[in-house]
Design goal:
76% helix, mainly alpha, 508 residues, Growth Hormone, Chain: A, globular, 0% strand
């Protein structure tokens, strides 16, 4: 190549129209089993908020918060404001951030299955430690082990789903991860609703049951096939071709196989994927890997899901009523994910992200207005306004469930070339977990300081991210995962940044 200024692109030309195959039972079952990893993430999100509102848990580990909850009513917005309590929730995500970076070379060198199994085993250990914790140190260490499991699972599962799914259904099948996440949240909320009555030890059962999806994930990982992309990248071309033929239900896989081989040849020439991902030709994907998970968390959804019982108790709901309301939001989140699964490969990613963002902004502003006008820090909302707030929050959660919830994971997992895919997914997970940690650690303090303004804070971020998608995210619907590079060359903005490969090929 003349001048050496252009890096190889991997896939030489667009071959999407030559892809053959059908949706096989084999690939659907494999994707369902792999997506169980999402339930680990969801179960912890749902279980944490419920457990931190249970009196038995607070008396055991956070007696100061328990006394404040029972006796200090001068400011409802601040009665759960405790950094130690926030650390219980957020420590998991800090550990997950670190482990997701460690998981990248393991996922690339040993395959997606290896990371899925590691994540399941780590989560089993963490759930066991938390369920049997006798002091705060043991409790936090258990949370750290859960975080390691989250880091490995979130790094490997979306990659696995994107690489196994046929191009025309990649969005829907990839969202099995988000669906499992939302079902995990709903399951956790329902378990909390039941275990809250088992005083004072019900919280142990809530935490310990996290081992159930972890066992399913670890066992499932043992029996799952490796992805063709990973096998070919590791030099197992014949085995990769066999798996590709099996999951596509045809022996005519030449076009897709050649794309994977081309991408694999380039991937194996890259010794330092994290360094390579900083190159100009990977700039659009890197930006998306950073901003998509950042914006996903800055919707404020995790604040609602982590602290739903706490939030509803803050608004004056009783203990049982707050857990019931949080279970309702979990059910709405899970059911709304089906809307995205059904429409993402027909309507596209951009339409769902933009429309979902608009609905979330409206909902956040309405909640802020209601709380600002009708809620006093020393007394709860009236019954009618409490119901209205729950309805609006459910509409917010529904919008997230069919837009930024699943697509915040789907888009980053499908846009990277093979040589930087594992590194890119690690960045996505690390950024997601970093902001999850920040929001988890700071939300109770922000709620105390901003009061109803916290909802306007999140509404502002949702406005920004909706504009970002409109301007900078190209539509990835129906584009083969190994041919995403062509999108950036055609986009009005990114074509000014990525190298013009056609010129380089002409000079070759």
């Amino acid at each position: 190549m003349a001048g050496g200024s252009f890096a190889p692109r991997g896939v030489a030309k667009e071959r999407a129209e030559q892809y053959k195959g059908r949706v096989t039972a084999f690939v659907i079952i494999a994707c369902i089993v792999a997506a169980v990893g999402g339930s680990l993430f969801g179960y912890d999100i749902g279980i944490s908020g419920g457990v931190t509102s249970m009196d038995g848990f607070l008396v055991k580990f956070f007696p100061a918060v328990y006394r404040q909850k029972k006796h200090a009513h001068e400011n409802n917005y601040c009665k759960y404001n405790n950094q130690g309590l926030a650390a219980f929730t957020s420590s998991l995500y800090l550990a997950g951030l670190v482990s997701s970076i460690v998981a990248s070379p393991i996922t690339r060198k040993y395959g997606r299955r290896g990371s899925i199994i590691c994540g399941g085993l780590s989560f089993i250990i963490g759930a066991t430690l938390d369920a049997s914790a006798v002091n705060l140190a043991m409790l936090i260490f258990g949370r750290i082990m859960l975080g390691v499991g989250i880091g490995f699972g979130n790094q490997a599962v979306p990659l696995y789903l994107s690489e196994m799914a046929p191009t025309h259904l990649r969005g829907g099948l990839n969202m099995m991860f988000q669906l499992a996440t939302t079902l995990g949240i709903f399951t956790a909320n329902m378990i909390n609703y039941g275990t809250e009555k088992l005083r004072p030890w019900g919280w142990r059962l809530s935490l310990g049951l996290a081992a159930v999806p972890a066992i399913l994930m670890a066992i499932g990982g043992i029996f799952l096939p490796e992805t063709p992309n990973s096998l070919i990248e590791r030099g197992l071309k014949e085995k990769g071709q066999n798996v590709l033929e099996k999951i596509r239900g045809t022996s005519d896989v030449h076009a897709e196989l050649q794309d994977i081989i081309d991408a694999s040849d380039l991937a194996n020439s890259i010794k330092h994927p994290f360094r390579n991902i900083l190159e100009k030709r990977n700039r659009p994907q890197l930006v998306m890997a950073i901003f998509m998970p950042t914006f996903q968390i800055l919707t404020g959804i995790n604040s609602i899901l982590f602290y739903a019982p706490v939030l509803f108790q803050t608004m004056g709901f009783g203990g049982n009523a707050s857990l019931y309301s949080s279970a309702l939001t979990g059910a709405v989140l899970a059911s709304s994910t089906f809307i995205s699964i059904a429409t993402v490969d027909r309507l596209g990613r951009r339409a769902l992200l933009i429309s979902g963002g608009i609905q979330m902004v409206v909902c956040q502003v309405i909640v802020a207005i209601i709380l600002g006008l009708k809620f006093r820090s020393d007394e709860g909302l009236s019954n009618s306004f409490s119901i209205l707030v729950v309805v609006i929050i459910c509409l917010f959660v529904a919008a997230f469930g069919w837009s930024w919830g699943p697509l915040g994971w789907t888009v980053p997992s499908e846009i990277f070339p093979l040589e930087t895919r594992s590194a890119g997914q690690s960045i996505t997970v690390a950024v997601n977990l970093f902001f999850t940690f920040v929001i988890g650690q700071s939300f109770l303090t922000l709620l105390c300081a901003f009061k109803f303004g916290i909802f306007l804070f999140f509404a502002g971020w949702i406005t920004i991210m909706t504009i970002f998608v409109y301007l900078f995210l190209p539509e990835t619907k129906g584009v083969p995962i190994e041919e995403m590079i062509f999108l950036w060359e055609k986009h009005w903005f990114w074509k000014k940044i990525v190298p013009i490969y056609s010129e380089a090929e002409t000079e070759s």
